[in-house]
């Protein structure tokens, strides 16, 4: 974490050393892969409330992600307020209408057809929580002096992955939503110009009648995503 105070390199023993056998590693890896294989993007949310402390704990997990120079260039805004969710939905749908009316281009719209999406986004008000993730393009001290952050897209992407895994592990469903553009979120959530909205996560429990597009179950085989040099 960047500080005006002088911070020198001060090595300490690894605090949480994990030393399992090969079989332990295999079992843990298989168990986690199986758990994450049950994660599905959901658009049909139960409106039942989700405790705030669960959301806070999952965001705390995201805060443990590695980042460039340990600057942790992210911030999260968690929203359960119905009026604010309604405002975000209205402004997001306005951007989505432009997107589907031609802003996206034919190729992008065709790619979305098997997913079954359109400019109607009820999940933004149905889900009990929205979590908006912001990337801090640069940091600022209290007097407004700026300092540089490093590897911001990579760092925030990793943190978002941590958050998605944590929410799923907690038994929650979610949808990653990225209206284009997203600048309206800075005004709606009173965020500084140094922060760029990355995505909205709609979070809650899936409705009992929730459905997903069949194409979502088609995943690339390992041979298509992995190259190994031994």
Automatic annotation (TrEMBL):
The UniProt record lists the keyword Oxidoreductase: yes
Chain ranges of the Nitroreductase domain: 37-205
Pfam families reported in the protein's UniProt record: Nitroreductase
A GO term for molecular function: oxidoreductase activity
Record keyword Oxidoreductase present: yes
Alphabetically ordered keywords of this record: Flavoprotein, FMN, Oxidoreductase
InterPro entries the UniProt entry points to: Nitroreductase (IPR029479), Nitroreductase-like (IPR000415), Nitroreductase/BluB (IPR050627)
PANTHER family: IODOTYROSINE DEIODINASE 1, NADPH NITROREDUCTASE
Name of the protein in question: Nitroreductase
